[in-house]
């Protein structure tokens, strides 16, 4: 059962330490030190109180044995509870310490550790409530166990001073941790923003180079066309003119290839040096894609009415991505529905890809959320390939994703 809304202010803050089951080495060292300090003070204080004249504590001698041993038992329980001070059990432990602080001496150090933990790991409202509660019990303590040589106000004042010091110390530690956490968060955001700026700069530079190379390639190809046309118009031109035109065509073609290699190298995704170019999927991989979707729980009916080897590689890659996006959308928005994939066409008429599935009925709480950019990117990819893409609800109450891609003869 979770905490109801009115008690959520008691939950750990963002600076709360991890669960004891996942303590780090530093956490173990601090927890061991806290337990030894709290329980060690309990043992030493009890032994001192059992003496006829206490030397460490200034308690009045002659405390009843039952009170001393009750104090020891309660303080021992509180010291053992320090092992769970990093969990939600800190609040019950603090309440327990407030109750026994009315009469306990042996649990004094444990009580200060618990108060310090609350100051570090809980909100100020929680700390204020427990500080007021402990201050109230501290006001009652001198009546139950008065000290030798001190009046009521001295005993109460010294107890309050220790409580204030521990609270302020814990608040300073908490503020320092919050400051460090804000610095860390700010540094992470700055690093992420820097990476984003680098990526944007790289994309902008690639687009600029692509536009520049487009102009260069268009210029060089126009030279090729011009000189080739001249040779076609004047087949009986002088040998020197033919040789010059052929030299210009050869040089322009060579330079165009060099420019094209540079464009591809700049626009290609970063890969480790020497890594081979991964093979790109084409229509031949559609059965494997359909089988992969079936293994993920999608009902797929695949009908490819063309020979994958006869389709140009670029067209096949685009068609593969269209089918892949269609299956992904069906898996997201219409889980369990039958998805029909049809690929047909011929050289000269183009390639038609159609992905259909029933329109989702009602909401589905288990559907995978989408960003809404998949179809936008797919439309752009199809347009760059010289095709067109449409999607939407059909009169047959189906969602249809239809694309046409050019297939030259």
Automatic annotation (TrEMBL):
Reactions accelerated catalytically: ATP + protein L-histidine = ADP + protein N-phospho-L-histidine
Keyword annotations: ATP-binding, Kinase, Membrane, Nucleotide-binding, Phosphoprotein, Transferase, Transmembrane, Transmembrane helix, Two-component regulatory system
GO cellular component, one term: membrane
Family matches, as Gene3D superfamilies: 1.20.5.1930, Histidine kinase-like ATPase, C-terminal domain
EC numbers: 2.7.13.3
Stretches assigned to the Signal transduction histidine kinase subgroup 3 dimerisation and phosphoacceptor domain: 205-270
Pfam family, one: HisKA_3
TM segment ranges: 28-47, 67-84, 93-118, 124-144, 156-175
MF annotations from Gene Ontology: ATP binding; phosphorelay sensor kinase activity; protein dimerization activity
Domain of life of the organism encoding this protein: Bacteria
Record-linked InterPro entries: HATPase_C_sf, Sensor_HK_TwoCompSys, Sig_transdc_His_kin_sub3_dim/P
Transmembrane helix keyword on record: yes
Name this polypeptide is given: histidine kinase
Species assigned in the record: Paractinoplanes abujensis
């Amino acid at each position: 059962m979770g905490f109801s809304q009115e008690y959520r202010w008691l939950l750990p803050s963002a600076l709360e330490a991890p669960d004891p089951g996942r303590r780090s080495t530093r956490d173990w060292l601090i927890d061991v030190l806290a337990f030894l300090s709290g329980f060690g003070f309990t043992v030493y204080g009890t032994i001192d109180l059992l003496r006829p004249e206490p030397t460490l504590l200034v308690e009045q001698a002659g405390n009843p044995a039952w009170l001393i041993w009750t104090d020891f038992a309660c303080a021992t329980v509180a010291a053992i509870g320090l092992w769970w001070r990093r969990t939600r059990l800190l609040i019950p432990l603090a309440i327990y310490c407030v109750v026994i602080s009315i009469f306990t001496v042996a649990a004094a150090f444990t009580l200060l550790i618990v108060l310090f933990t609350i100051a570090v790991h809980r909100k100020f409202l929680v700390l204020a409530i427990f500080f007021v509660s402990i201050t109230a019990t501290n006001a009652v303590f001198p009546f139950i166990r008065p000290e030798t040589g001190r009046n009521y106000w001295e005993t109460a004042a010294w107890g309050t001073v220790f409580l204030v010091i521990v609270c302020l110390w814990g608040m300073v530690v908490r503020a320092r941790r919050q400051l460090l956490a804000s610095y860390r968060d700010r540094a992470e955001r700055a690093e992420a923003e820097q990476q984003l700026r680098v990526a944007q700069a790289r994309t902008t530079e690639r687009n600029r180079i692509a536009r520049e190379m487009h102009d260069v390639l268009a210029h060089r190809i126009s030279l090729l066309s011009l000189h080739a046309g001249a040779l076609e118009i004047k087949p009986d031109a002088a040998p020197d003119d033919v040789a010059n035109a052929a030299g210009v065509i050869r040089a322009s073609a060579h330079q165009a290839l060099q420019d094209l290699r540079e464009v591809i190298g700049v626009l290609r995704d970063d890969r480790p040096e020497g890594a081979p170019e991964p093979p790109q999927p084409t229509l031949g991989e559609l059965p494997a894609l359909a089988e992969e979707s079936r293994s993920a729980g999608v009902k797929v009916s695949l009908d490819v009415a063309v020979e994958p080897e006869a389709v140009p590689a670029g067209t096949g890659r685009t068609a593969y991505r269209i089918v892949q996006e269609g299956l992904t959308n069906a898996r997201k928005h219409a889980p369990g529905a039958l998805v029909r994939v049809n690929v047909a066409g011929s050289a000269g008429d183009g390639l038609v890809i159609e992905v259909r599935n029933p329109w989702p009925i009602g909401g589905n709480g288990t559907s995978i959320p989408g960003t809404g950019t998949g179809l936008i990117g797919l439309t752009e990819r199809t347009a760059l390939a010289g095709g067109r893409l449409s999607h939407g609800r059909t009169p047959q109450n189906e969602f249809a994703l239809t694309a046409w891609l050019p297939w030259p003869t």
